Description:
This protein is mainly alpha-helical. It has helices spanning about 45-75, 80-110, 135-145, 155-165, 185-205, 210-225, 225-250, 255-270, 275-300; strands spanning about 15-25, 30-40, 120-125, 130-135.
Amino acid sequence: MRFPRFCACCMRDAETEIPLLYTRTKGVKVIRSKSITWPLPYCHTCISHINAWHRSSRNFKLALFSGLAFSCIFLFAGLLNTALTLSILSLLLALVARYKTRQNALALCTKECPTVHVAASYDGWSGSVHSFDFAHRNYAARFMQMNVNKLVNLNSEARAILESCLQDSTFANPKTEGLFLGSERNNKSDEDAGELFFQCVSKIERAKGPASRRAALDAGLQKLTDTELRRRLKVEATRIEVSTGLERMEKLKSRSSRARLLSSLRGYLSDETLPHDFRDEQIRWITETVMELEERERAGAA
Ligand SMILES: [Zn+2]
Ligand SMILES: [Zn+2]
């Protein structure tokens, strides 16, 4: 995935980056968590309006808590009226201070800024499909252009943005011309291939049991003509097989059925055509799960 080198908020030159993070936890007995971070290009001005907005909430809480703490002191001293007046006053003061600092944060936004908050979110992943949400329409369009052969599952709004910017000749920018995938013909077929790829992945995900997942994979491989997409489909199918296998393993009680499942999972990963780092990662994941399960059993037996 590539991000256009503009600020995702105001679309001026990006001077730095901010992390877009998503953490997922999985598992019933053995909790596995995985985080993915993407570097989102940003400018210093836009970072300052985000920080100013966060500061206003922080200061509001701080003013309120210190006011209430003082009120408690008066309350314990038996000065009920003073405590009440002080807590009302501190609430009013905190509200006024928050309003002022929020106005300052808004004043830092340029007229291009679509929001005072972070202008994009990463909503996680399913297999190799990652979901993003951009507040700036033009940034979303440029991001889609740069990654056009990787787009899948576009909603109607995203599709409309992509189509309208392809028709808009003024949209091309000298800075991105090298990256600009302006050929509608290629774009259409790439988009179709991406859509087909996504359908194949969800068919494998929906299939019940290894045999029907294998059949769904074979059917998908027959439909896809692009070598890269075929390779990605194999990776996704293996990932799905391993993660469903590990979920099942956590529920298995007998050692022998667990060992059988383990050897079949290792069998999937023995495929030499799969990327090496992917295989290493999956093998590590399996080993960690097995070790944790055994440890848990030993602790249970002791
Ligand atoms: Zn900016
Ligand atoms: Zn901004």
